[in-house]
Amino acid sequence: MTVTGQLDAIDWRILRTLQDDGRITNVELAEKVGLSPPPCLRRVRALEVAGYIAGYRAMLNAEKLGFEVMVFAMVGLKSQAESELTQFIEQVKRWPLVRECYAVSGEADFMLKCVGPNLHAMQDFIIKDLTAAANVDSVKTTLILRQEKYEPGIPIS
Fold it and tell me: What are the structural domains, with CATH classification, of the chain?
């Protein structure tokens, strides 16, 4: 990063390259962005410390690993008091089938992306856990038939 803390063109190239391939070696990354390895590594570390790089992880194939069902669940709460919202969010964090949770505006209060091994397991979760949770007023689910695009991250040109 530049001295002022602003991202320059090289920082953006580093971010784009790492987003596309988080397993790239520092030597390969340095070559792609036009730096030698030591300053490239310093920049990556600075981007990590500044919070521009939130982490690294492997993208797993859910279906190959036995997780064949995905649903979106729109959840409406009985109360939107801060303590109730916090309590619901803490519960969501304890449910392993919930992989993503977003507070939303409109008809629902939260949208959850849930992944399960089969329809029976997903149905059990929705009925026994999600709809039975304290403060949950309504749950509307949409079964995901197939994923047509999955491109995590942000669009960096």
Answer: 9-49 (1.10.10.10), 69-143 (3.30.70.920)
The 3-class secondary structure across 19-31, one letter per residue, is HHCCCCCHHHHHH
Regarding pTM above 0.90, the answer is no
Calpha distance 35→137 (Å, rounded): 55
Beta carbons within 10 angstroms of residue 110's beta carbon: 20
Q: List pLDDT tens digits, range 16-73.
A: 999 999 999 999 999 999 999 999 999 999 999 999 999 999 999 999 999 999 999 9
| Angle, helix 26-33 to helix 9-20, in steps of 10 degrees | 130
Find tokens 């300053």 and name the residue.
39
Give 42-91 as a DSSP string. Answer: HHHHHHHHTTSS--------TTTTT--EEEEEEEEES---HHHHHHHHHH
Nearest-angstrom CA–CA distance, 33 and 13: 6
Q: Express each pLDDT in 108-140 by its tens digit.
A: 999 999 999 999 999 999 999 999 999 999 999
